[in-house]
Amino acid sequence: xxxxxxxxxxxxxxxxxxxxxxxxxxxxxxxxxxxxxxxxxxxxxxxxxxxxxxxxxxxxxxxxxxxxxxxxxxxxxxxxxxxxxxxxxxxxxxxxxxxxxxxxxxxxxxxxxxxxxxxxxxxxxxxxxxxxxxxxxxxxxxxxxxxxxxxxxxxxxxxxxxxxxxxxxxxxxxxxxxxxxxxxxxxxxxxxxxxxxxxxxxxxxxxxxxxxxxxxxxxxxxxxxxxxxxxxxxxxxxxxxxxxxxxxxxxxxxxxxxxxxxxxxxxxxxxxxxxxxxxxxxxxxxxxxxxxxxxxxxxxxxxxxxxxxxxxxxxxxxxxxxxxxxxxxxxxxxxxxxxxxxxxxxxxxxxxxxxxxxxxxxxxxxxxxxxx
Length: 372
Fold this sequence. Notes:
alpha/beta, 12 helices, nine-stranded mixed sheet
């Protein structure tokens, strides 16, 4: 075996694996993020491995190892493998990278970052990981790649980071509950600079617990944009072990709204207009929506159900931070609530593929009634 491909036998606290899907207009940003990783480097606490596909920078994909700083204090990106051209939107490419990274880097906990543009669950072909010359990954494809990489209930990823736009939805967090402990991502679009990877690696050197690391990643992300003077950013960390209760509460809430849709349709349409939305306006803040409904709809059962949505959803959110007035009513989790009938029915079938709808969903029944 080539020396470069041998597994790292030293078991560290963290294994950081970044899947940088840069064969698109984010190519330069991907290279900049690798430089940020090199600005700090791996450490005695953390292995760092990267796979990147770029547009024009090199042929094919490259797997890098980010070294610990050398005697001069500089870390380096070392080429471990040069691969033929890959489609980053192919789940097999993600699976192969995860298997390679987890075999090569022995670690107590893995942090996996999926890096790219993001569109939640419902873009036509660009949910996440898209390749200008290939396809993109939807949520079922990612969980399938995880399962085939050997990830599951007995060896979950500690933190799944979406360095991408619009990914922190209750439906998405719940979709990964059998594979991931904590999801870190943004409700809103992310600026082009994405995560501050130098700060993330610094944080990993001095953080012992998974939950503390997730909280600090969120804090470092928001603080970085405060320093840069970039507004209207969001980031949150969500515990997937608690999403069952939130999804159940959302279903009960949806069924009660459906039962009473005739009397409250007009008011719900008005509430929908004033609820916190994001760049894709069919994504709304779940807690803000439930709060407004609890206050403005005079129905004891609906109010009680709305408060239960708030309680159970809040319990999922380990931390949520925002910066900027246009995202001030963001609490950490979005939910799908399209205002237009045509958009709803264009993506309804794709929505039903998410695990939250596997056994039927009161929320889908409400959306059906709302758009009937």
